[in-house]
Amino acid sequence: MKKISLVLFLLIFAAVLAGCGTKDKKDTTNQQNNTVNENTQDNKEDTKEDANVDNNDTGNNNTAEKKKIVVGASVTPHAEILEVAKGILAKKGYELEIVEYSDYVQPNLALDYGDLDANYFQHQPYLDNFNEERGLDLVSVAKIHYEPFGLYPGKTKKIEDLKDGALIAVPNDGTNEARALLLLEAQGLIKLKEGAGMDATITDIVENPKNLEIIEIEAAQLARSLQDVDMAVINGNYAIQAGLNVSKDAVAVEAQDSLAAETYANIVAVRRGDEDREEIKALVEALMSDEVRDFIESTYEGAVVPKF
C-alpha cells in the first residue's frame, strides 16, 4: 500500500513539473515572438518614412515651380492680349495670372496694395492724374498699344444731322474727358479755350455753335448710353467690348499720327522700385513680341494699334 501511494505521488509531481515547464516555454516563445514583431513593425515604419522622404525629394526635383506674375487688366483688349503673352511666358518658366476689372479705379488700388505685380489698362495721363489724386507712386514700364477714340452714333446717325441742343456723352474721368473734347473740337462741334489741351474740361468750352449738351458718364457705361443720347465718344476698349468697330461704326476717329495717339498709348504700370524685377522685364518682353503684334493687328482691325 505504501509503495502504491509513493508511486502515485511521484507521478503527480512529475506531471506538475511538466506543466510548469510547458508554460514557461510558451511564455518565453511569446515574448520572443512579440519582440520580433515589434522590431519588424519598427523596421517597416522606418522604411516607410525613408520612402516618403525619398518620394518628396524626387517630387521636388522633378517639379520646377514656376514664378507667378499677377496682372490686372480691362477685359478687352488688355486681358485678351495678355492671354497671348501668357503662352510666351509659360515657355520661360513664368505663370501669368490675369485678374480682370470692369472699372478704372480698382486696378491701380490693387496694384498699390500689393495684390498685383502690374496692371495693363490705362494711359500715362490717366496714371499721372490718379497718382496725384490718390497719393500713389505707380510708374509706367512700357507702351504697348493705342486705342483710337471714336464718336459713335446713337439717336443721330451723322454729324451733320445733329440738331441744336443735341445730347453728347463723354467719359467722366479727367484725362479721357479731355481726349473726347479734343475729338469733338477736331470735328468743328466745339472750340476749347486756348492752351486747354490735355487738361481740357467742359468748363473750357468757349464756343458751342449747336448748343450741344455734353454730359459726363462713367467710361464703362458709354456704349450702353447710345440709345439715350445722340452720340457718344467712347474709349477704344469699351467700344470693342460692346461689339463696336472704330473703323466701321464710328462717325469720327482720332488720327493715328495725332498727339493723342502718342499721349494716350496704353501702358504697363508697376509700383516704383519694381521696374527692374526679372518678372516685370519678362512680362514686357512678352507683350512686345512679334506674336502679340500679329495678334493685335489681325484681331482688332485698326481698333487697337501696336505702339512697339
Automatic annotation (TrEMBL):
Record protein name field: Lipoprotein
Family: Belongs to the NlpA lipoprotein family.
Species, as recorded: Herbinix hemicellulosilytica
Recorded GO CC terms: membrane
Biased composition (Basic and acidic residues): 41-51
PROSITE patterns from the UniProt entry: PROKAR_LIPOPROTEIN
Segments for region (Disordered): 24-65
Signal peptide: 1-18
Keyword DNA repair: no
Compositional bias segments (type: Low complexity): 29-40, 53-63
InterPro entries, alphabetized: Lipoprotein_NlpA (IPR004872)
Keyword field contains Lipoprotein: yes
Localization (cell): Membrane
Swiss-Prot/TrEMBL keywords: Lipoprotein, Membrane, Palmitate, Signal
Domain of life: Bacteria
Membrane topology: Lipid-anchor
